[in-house]
Amino acid sequence: MASTDTPARGQTPAGASxxxxxxxxxxxxxAPTSGRGPRKKPHLVAGLLLVVFCxxxxxxxxxxxxxxxxxxAVARPVTVGHVLTSADLRIxxxxxxxxxxxxxxxxxxxxxxxxxATALGPGALLTPDAVGAxxxxxxxxxxxxxxxxxxxxxxxxxxxxxxSVIVTAAATQPTATVVAPVVGATWRATVVGVAPAGMDQTxxxxxxxxATDAVALAQxxxxxxxxxxxxxxxxx
Length: 236
Prior knowledge:
The protein is of the alpha+beta class. The strands form two sheets. A five-stranded antiparallel β-sheet has the order 3-6-5-4-7. Helix content is 17%, strand content 21%. Keywords: Membrane, Transmembrane, Transmembrane helix. InterPro entries: SAF.
């Protein structure tokens, strides 16, 4: 006798539970589901970025280091005519721009003992044309010669020394056309040459100073000047 039992409301026939677990509402196989969303990997991404950054930084540092060359620079102010010594120079590592001529540290012997052709301040890179015969006078400046006798200038005066020239006495024969500097008038200059004293015991000192001051100094009374040596690195 066939069974006429029917499943109670809310129950499924035997074998139907499997169909419900893998079939969708339309009877087609349903996509597998998971209680977890897509896994994020922030630590992995950050790690990759760190590796790329470190690698790029290492390449940049290595390249910049390889491009730098030990080069000579000025350690303290030097003026035109100053004879270079080791104390005037220091070594810096620089990456020189193409076409810029500098003096490598290994070539220091080629510039030591030579006069400066230009004036440079501390930290300036030394170039080959900055050393050698002085390029005088520079624009806006002039060269004037003054005659001084023993006792009117330091006996150890040399090219490159910063000095002051002072009028010590008034002109004995003033003229109406030229106004001579007054006693005490002072000019700052740089020595560019010292000629040995002649038969009259007069030493001729050539000075580099502004064009205006050179004109005024040239009108100072002959033999009534004194040269005062200033500290190295002083203003001209």
